[in-house]
Specification:
Helix content is 40%, strand content 28%. The protein has 718 residues and is an alpha+beta fold. Helix 5 (126-148) runs parallel beside helix 13 and helix 20 (557-564) crosses helix 21.
Length: 718
């Protein structure tokens, strides 16, 4: 309320007393003629405009009004003077320091004898106006942000009627905001589910609820994780419910494993303090150190939060704040704190409880803001803004604790905000990310993600793509990138969400390697060799060319392995693999199919058997020559060698397994011939091998059935 000047005195003594009282007032008081000429100002009025009271007599009061408001003020005071009705108004004034400040005026007409004078009482309301504008901007930003988040957010009163709904929930309900506000879920959906009704009743009784529930959205069943959190008034009575719903139908396994909600937007301009679970200080930002009178390099490792906190706040901390933060993850309110001289300072106060992977609270973050200058204006606005402010604080809590890696980019590409989960995923500091422009990110350009960003902003439709990003530390990370176009402060922005696929991609690669590669030499294994041999047979039939299979067995590998151990044997196998790869053509395949057995597939040779055999012999001799070269094994020079069998194949050849058997037979013939040689397969070999196998089979049968007899033939010398 703006004070009014007392009525005029009837005597000189009374007039002097009256002037003394008015001059002592902190508010600005003036008397002026109908045209605005000042005939009296008190000391407070003159002081604001840098003049002595007497120096202002005769000046026009309009000379101190901001030029933008002169016309409106003149019209208002003229009306007051003509009608005699008192009014209250607010306008801008130009003070002595050149600043523009808002003043609330009470204007009326004062009759002094036969004269009518304008009298005005003014009060500087600049802090309140600033707070109102900041709060309005904050509320508008948070409402826009709530509509941009892909979560369902609502506020219900005690009758379970919607008082706030964001865009995501409206889309699920399929109704405009005007049809939803003021109505219950049962009224909107022609009936309510008993489970939801029971949960709501428990929450309204004061018990927070968290549960999963299936709903039909656009004709499909979707599963939502819902939270109902009671909103209490100053006396602790539940006056409504905060409601959030997260669509978890397609949630990735990595998201299910997350246990902790992490902060998205940091409040580094406020006083930030972190403690462990016991209250021992672990971090204070520079603003907090200055407020508590601590040097920037002062050691806080052995200090407790209670050393810097008034006793009444410590008691409330233990009784209310910590239990609520542990239960709900965050506590927001107002407390009294100490400054450097241990004077009480009113502060807005936030406590966030951080949990480890086991779900136990291990540390607290405390964010404080000095609200001494804002307290008076805040009291005037608090009643009307209480519900919206509570909702805004709740939305901020959700954002700060989002488990999803998120970043916000302006339409021009500049990074506006990222959370810690985003920074951890890409392996870069938040400060570096905030200096990024998505036009300059190489991996986004190469993967066409940049084109997706521009398309999302152009069409205002979400986009999705899998990409591989490289952090500033060289770490490669596979992610699913989801792009959501949003509007903040009437400007287009892009909300980027990343889901880590690195572990999934690594497992896929390992499985592929285990299925088709030899783990020691990294050469193709038998499965991949047979696949490529089948492809080579089909190629021969299409082109009319021939190919060859070389079967290689290392000489005396077992002795080397027994003498020097398996580690040395493995070194020799890797060396052999390297020599084989260097000895053949790029189009040929080198495979390891057993302990010391290798196969070389020569594809696309000549069109005639004679020429193809000549090419095979040249390549085979080159391989044998490469394998004969001495090498150092376990500090000793070794002279290894190998036996090699070869078989040709063409358009009329049989299956791959038969070709491998033929090359194997030829390799054994090379061994019998003295090793370190190349032998080609001959059908006679196969017949001899078949005959030998048949003889062995018959001998085993004869032994089993006792069909053998021993005959003696005497020999005498004639």
């Amino acid at each position: 309320m703006n004070p009014k000047p007392p009525p005029p005195p009837a005597s000189l003594d009374a007039e002097l007393s009256f002037r003394a009282i008015v001059d002592a007032q902190a508010d600005m008081v003036s008397l002026a003629q109908g045209d605005g000429t000042l005939i009296y100002v008190n000391r407070a009025y003159a002081r604001e405009f840098g003049r002595a009271p007497q120096a202002m007599i005769g000046l026009s009061l309009y000379g101190f009004v901001d030029a933008q408001d002169v016309a409106a003020v003149r019209a208002r005071l003229t009306q007051v003077y003509e009608t005699g009705a008192s009014t209250r108004s607010e306008n801008r004034m130009r003070f002595a320091d050149g600043s523009e400040r808002w003043v609330a005026w009470t204007n009326g007409v004062l009759a002094v004898g036969d004269r009518r004078l304008l009298h005005s009482v003014g009060q500087d309301i600049t802090p309140r106006r600033g707070l109102e504008q900041a709060l309005a901007a904050s509320e508008r930003f948070l409402r826009q942000l709530a509509d941009s988040i892909p979560l369902r957010i609502a506020y219900l009163d005690r009758d379970r009627r919607y008082r706030f709904v964001n865009r995501c929930l409206l889309e699920n309900l399929g109704r405009p905001r005007a049809e939803v506000l003021g109505r219950t879920r049962a009224e909107l959906l022609d009936g309510d589910d008993a489970t939801l009704a029971g949960r709501a009743a428990l929450a309204l009784a004061g018990a927070p609820q968290q549960f999963e529930f299936d709903e039909i959205v656009d004709g499909r069943t979707r599963r939502f994780e819902n939270r109902l959190i009671p909103d209490r008034d100053a006396e602790g009575r539940v006056r409504g419910l905060f409601v959030t719903g997260i669509d978890i139908t397609a949630r990735a396994q990595a998201e299910r494993d997350l246990r902790t909600l992490t902060a998205i937007f940091d409040a580094t301009t406020d006083f930030v303090v972190q403690t462990d679970f016991r209250g021992q200080l672990t971090y204070m930002n520079p603003a907090a150190r200055w407020r508590c009178g601590l040097a920037a390099d002062a050691d806080i490792a052995h200090r407790h939060i209670t050393e810097l906190t008034p006793p009444q706040t410590v008691e409330r901390h233990l009784r209310e704040i910590l239990p609520r933060a542990i239960e709900q993850g965050v506590w927001i309110g107002e407390t009294v704190q100490w400054d450097a001289q241990r004077r009480d300072v009113p502060c807005s106060h936030m406590v966030i409880a951080h949990r480890n992977e086991a779900g136990r609270v291990e540390r607290f973050s405390i964010i404080l803001r000095d609200i001494t200058a804002e307290k008076r204006a805040q009291s005037a606005l608090e009643h009307s803004a209480s519900t919206l402010r509570s909702l805004a604080e709740f939305n901020q809590t959700i954002l700060r604790n989002s488990p999803v890696a998120m970043g916000v980019y302006a339409a021009g590409g500049r990074c506006v905000q990222v959370n810690d989960a985003y920074a951890r995923l890409v392996g870069a500091p938040r400060e570096a990310l905030l200096e990024q422009n998505f036009h300059d990110i190489a991996s986004w350009r190469q993967s066409e993600l940049l084109a997706d960003c521009l398309a999302a902003l152009r069409t205002m439709q979400p986009q999705r793509r899998e990409i591989q990003v490289v952090s500033t530390f060289g770490k490669r990370v596979w992610v699913v990138c989801e792009l959501f176009p949003i509007e903040l402060n009437e400007e287009k922005h892009l909300l980027v969400q990343l889901i880590d696929l690195t572990e999934q991609k690594r497992l896929e690669t390992e499985l592929r390697l285990l299925a088709f590669e030899d783990p020691l030499t990294r050469l193709p294994n038998r499965r991949l060799l047979m696949d490529r041999l089948e492809q080579a047979l089909r190629l021969c039939k299409r082109r009319g060319t021939l190919g060859a299979v070389l079967y290689i067995d290392l000489t005396k590998f077992k002795q080397l392995n027994d003498a020097h151990g398996h580690a040395v044997g493995d070194q020799w196998l890797v060396e052999v693999a390297t020599r084989l790869v260097h000895a053949v053509r790029e189009t040929d395949t080198v495979a390891r199919i057993g302990g010391d057995e290798f196969v070389v597939l020569l594809a696309a040779l000549a069109t005639t058997p004679l020429e193809s055999a000549a090419q095979t012999r040249v390549l085979g001799e080159r391989i044998l020559q490469a394998l004969r070269q001495p090498c150092q094994i376990d500090g000793q020079e070794q002279h290894p060698s190998a036996s090699m069998g070869a078989t040709l194949f063409g358009p009329q050849s049989g299956d791959a397994q038969a070709l491998l058997q033929q090359a194997d037979l030829a390799m054994y013939r090379a061994k019998e011939a003295g090793r370190n040689q190349l032998h080609f397969f001959d059908p006679v070999m196969q017949a001899a091998a078949h005959q030998r196998q048949q003889l062995i089979t018959e001998l085993h049968k004869a032994l089993r059935e006792q069909e053998l007899r021993l005959y003696y033939q005497p020999q005498v010398d004639a």
